[in-house]
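tool_call predict_complex ligand=adenosine-5'-triphosphate
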Amino acid sequence: MRLSRYFLPTLKEAPSDAQIVSHQLMLRAGMIKQEAAGIYAWLPLGLRVLNRIEQIVREEQERAGAVELLMPTLQLADLWRESGRYDAYGPEMLRITDRHERELLYGPTNEEMVTDIFRGFVKSYKQLPLNLFHIQWKFRDERRPRFGVMRGREFLMKDAYSFDIDEASARKAYNRMFAAYLNTFARMGLKAVPMRADTGPIGGDLSHEFIVLADTGESQVFCDKRLVEMAPPGNDVDWNDLQSVFDERTALYAATEEMHDAGAFEAGTPEENRLTARGIEVGHIFYFGTKYSAPMKAKVAGPDGKDTEVHMGSYGVGVSRLLGAIIEASHDEGGIIWPDAVAPFDVVVINLRVSDEGVNAACEEAVAKLEASGKDVLYDDTDERPGGKFATADLIGVPWQLTIGPKGLADGVVELKRRATGEKQTVPLAQALEIIG
Ligand code: ATP
Ligand code: MG
Ligand code: MG
Ligand code: MG
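tool_result ok
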């Protein structure tokens, strides 16, 4: 991608109403533009990162056995009347009326709709277990939309819904999502800690939030420090028996403010391991049994031929919120530092003198070779001054910066900089390409 033909509207300064660093940097890096309170246009650079995060979430859901579908954003109010949530949900729900005076809503979550799909097609326990997920825009008319994509009104969520014949099987489904979430966040370079959580308006009796520790987080959390450094379970696990993965983590204390029990925290956690911190909720999983299947009559024939209400769980990831969380965890004075797995581009090639044919040719050769090896390349072929080019490259946080100019070329070398460490190497192009990998 040539920067001269791209759309990267960077800002010298962040608007003063952006209070936290991730919001400031997303605006400055030309990733998003606010269209209304809590409603954003995703500009090309922001969209690239959003897509990469979405893809990691999708791959880990599929690995855990979940099946993707896509439900609409608009839902009928009558469906929500079946569960009793239409009136209960309150002002966070955006209610809409169509030309026929039919009551609709912009979905804040999809328990009712997925239960309706399930009951329409699944009639036997033999079709279970089943886990259906989608990655779709949600709308919640938040009282205080703020912090950019962190608390939007329109936001992208991955939500999965599991259906099982009984509680024992539903708990296995819960554990699969529990493990999948640990792997998902780790792939993005995040340390997300599962914490016992309140079930809120979704309801139910077993629930964990996945929390990324950050001073700007909106939740107060309490946990055993050892959980923060615990490695994810990885892919080499038995997806039908993840009880030990669950037990190992839930044996250590971790709770959000609503569930916190100071006495239990002090009794069960040595003082040097007690951590009281702020955190960002990036995921939330629930087991809620027959809360929706009972009123909505989602039943299957069991092995004995009798109809049984299915046991359900739901599992959310804040896909768009994750951009904010990753930036909060990974930035410096110069700008964003994207972990490789979610970076919008792998490499930026910086041309220091676009008026020089030799430099242009060397840059184009570098871009072609990088692209041939599968890299996403941003080629800064603009006529901006070198200082401005370096500042932009740092700001947008691309993991590798490959700088080519007339002086280096005369000596047969280029400069390679790793954004995360600032480490620079002056080496021949071939060697730089090898280092990038
Ligand atoms: P919060 O406590 O931040 O309001 P929630 O508990 O209401 O979130 P859930 O219903 O658990 O949210 O939704 C699943 C996930 O969706 C959350 O863990 C979070 O990552 C994301 N999410 C929820 N609300 C928003 C929002 N307004 N903007 C961006 N992401 C959100
Ligand atoms: Mg909320
Ligand atoms: Mg919450
Ligand atoms: Mg939640």
